[in-house]
Amino acid sequence: MTKMLSGFMAFIGNYSYAIYLLHVFITAASRITAKSTGINDIWLLFVPGTTLGTAGPILIEVVASRYDITRTLLLGKRSANQK
User: Fold this and answer.
1) Which residues, other chains included, contact 77 with Cβ-Cβ below 8 Å and sequence gap of 6+?
2) 38: left (phi over 0), alpha (psi -120 to 50) or beta
């Protein structure tokens, strides 16, 4: 169990910079969307917001890293061709 949790946390850690940069936008969007549908319970805002605020930036980094322009503009990382 500990080894599985450790591997999961290491996976999340590999994307920590993207999570740091982008979580605000995704958590805000999930909260605004939920509130506009009438959801006001704190746990129904917190759990999806946390989940999406972590998974969304990971997905964005995976997709944005494929292209040099999005890698630089969205993530602030060098082109894959530069050393």
Assistant:
1) 65, 71
2) left
What is the per-residue pLDDT across 22-65, written as a single tens digit (0 to 9) for each?
999 999 999 999 999 999 999 999 999 999 999 999 999 999 99
Contacts of 16 (CB under 8 A, 6+ apart): none
Structure tokens at 30: 């999930």
* pTM (two decimals): 0.83
- Rounded to the nearest 10°, the torsion over CA 62, 66, 72, 75 is 0
Instruction: Output the six-digit token pair for 21.
Output: 């940069």
